[in-house]
Design brief:
By secondary structure, this protein is an alpha/beta fold. The protein has a single domain, classed as Nucleotidyltransferase, domain 5 (2-Layer Sandwich), CATH 3.30.420. The protein has seven helices and eleven strands. It has a nine-stranded mixed sheet, sandwiched between helices. Strand 2 and strand 3 form a beta hairpin. The radius of gyration is 21 Å and the shape is globular.
Length: about 290
């Protein structure tokens, strides 16, 4: 704990929404498009973008990057197909062929490879965006702030996390976090070790009432720089993020935990992405 002696529940004040502010999000798509025996060859697409909201409240794309690539177990491909694939597709991400005979586990490996490629793009854009921020501008990114030490140490960068697989609290503190009322936040605590590479300060924020839904409904975890200033700013930052829940980020599956500007970035990327990796692919069909 870095705020309060034990985790407490705090109401948030009236919001003051800053502008300009930038929002970063990414997307991923992949599809099996060819086979070499039972070896599945995948066409993948990942993209990330930063959209800056100006003083009039209009969002404009400022940074954008995408990557279309193939995923294949090159060591398990036939001598006939491998050179054809390498000639047709300039960007191939090789994966271990040991799991080719276990299709479900192989596709889990594929999905993990796609997630890493997306995370790499998002980290690069986050570092570029924070370096370009004006003196009073903020960057809000979808996901862990702590993936990049440079971004995690920036005084005006925030990460918002929608998934809660990692557990940072226990006992009474965990119960208070999971039953947090809408429009309230928890005390600030430090996140160390585990999947994070840089210490950050974090707290939970409830956007919508969970009663009648589930304990994670409308629940965000926020990450910010590990600094005493973050504790002082937590009330105002929480009220600002709470205000970003409108308009509703529908029809996104997790609209209850998705800030609308981040939803806007996601929809922007989807509109610019190929309709189907398979339709766009140059992969030879075995």
């Amino acid at each position: 704990m870095v705020e309060d002696s034990e985790l407490q529940v705090h109401p948030i004040p009236e919001p003051q929404i800053p502008n300009p502010v930038s929002f970063l999000n990414g997307m991923q798509r992949w599809s099996v498009v060819a086979y070499d025996g039972v070896a599945q060859i995948v066409s993948a697409y990942v993209a990330a973008a930063v959209c800056r909201r100006d003083k009039r409240g209009v969002l404009h794309a400022t940074f954008e990057r995408s990557r279309a690539f193939a995923i294949a177990p090159l060591d398990r491909l036939s001598p006939t197909l491998r050179p054809v694939l390498e000639q047709a597709v300039p960007d191939i991400e090789p994966v271990d062929g040991e799991l080719v005979g276990q299709p479900a586990r192989y596709l889990e490996q594929v999905e993990s490879t796609v997630r890493r490629a997306r995370a790499h793009l998002e980290r690069e854009l986050a570092e570029a965006a924070t370096a370009a921020l004006g003196a009073d501008e903020w960057l809000v990114l979808d996901g862990l702030l702590s993936r990049s030490p440079a971004v995690a140490r920036h005084p005006r960068a925030l990460g918002v996390i929608k998934s809660h697989g990692a557990q940072f609290l226990d006992g009474r503190g965990l119960e208070r976090a999971l039953t947090l009322p809408a429009g309230h936040r928890t005390s600030v605590f430090a996140v160390r070790g585990g999947h994070t590479r840089t210490e950050v300060y974090s707290w939970y924020l409830r956007l919508w009432p969970w009663e009648g839904n589930n304990l994670q409904y409308g629940l965000l975890r926020v990450e910010a720089r590990a600094d005493r200033e973050t504790i002082a700013r937590a009330p105002a930052l929480s009220s600002w993020l709470f205000a970003e829940r409108a308009p509703l980020a529908t029809p996104a599956t997790r609209w209850d935990r998705l800030l609308y500007p981040l939803h806007h970035v996601e929809e922007y990327l989807k509109a610019r992405a190929p309709r189907s990796p398979a339709a766009r692919s140059r992969l030879p069909v075995a």
